[in-house]
Specification:
about 190 residues; alpha+beta; Mannose-Binding Protein A, Chain A
């Protein structure tokens, strides 16, 4: 009888622990980190021929400049990998991250980046909202990065993401030609 009671108690404890707890963020909305989709229409060739910086550094500078134009302070990084660096390791853990409205939760933790956003980064529209990433669902680099963001000629391709998709579908399985004009995804640090 005691064993049965103990076993029942143990099952209740395990069942309660297994229930996913809702995310509660007590951070004031004005201090919440943001993510935005930068509609800059860039080719996969992010690095200009006269540029000495790496593609990821140029993309970070583009995100920071666009954030300033929107009135956003702070440091910003593009969700972008290269042949030598993974997007996930380029980011500080400034989670949780929200849409620019600071109300729509996208990622509660840095670890959630590998699962995809909880909601679409941008509200769905009549067109696909794709961005350059060179990044797998796991947040690591792929071999498809427009040769480290230096070329746009066919047959160069890159892995891309979607700002209008949530969860694992935010990473497009088929790489796109680097001659496409896409955007960047900017993440506050």
């Amino acid at each position: 009888m005691i064993r049965l009671a103990l076993w029942s108690w143990l099952l209740v404890v395990v069942a309660c622990a297994a229930e996913e707890q809702p995310f509660v963020d007590n951070t004031p909305p004005s201090e919440r980190s943001r993510i935005f989709y930068l509609r800059n229409g860039t080719l996969g060739k992010i690095v200009d021929s006269s540029e000495t910086r790496a593609g990821v550094d140029i993309a970070d500078a583009d995100c920071t400049a666009a954030a300033r134009d929107r009135g956003f302070d702070g440091a910003w990084r593009a969700w972008l990998s290269s042949s030598t660096v993974d997007a996930i390791t380029r980011l500080d853990d400034a989670a949780p991250w929200y849409r620019t409205d600071r109300e729509t939760l996208l990622f509660a933790t840095k670890a959630e980046l590998v699962e995809g956003p909880r909601a679409t980064i941008e509200p769905p529209s009549d067109q696909e909202l794709m961005f350059w990433s060179g990044t797998s669902l796991e947040g690591t680099r792929t071999s498809d990065t427009c040769a480290d963001w230096t070329i746009y000629v066919v047959p160069a391709v890159a892995t891309v993401g979607r700002a209008d998709a949530a969860h694992s579908s935010w990473v497009v399985q088929q790489p796109l030609l680097c001659s496409n004009y896409l955007a960047l995804l900017c993440i506050e640090q």
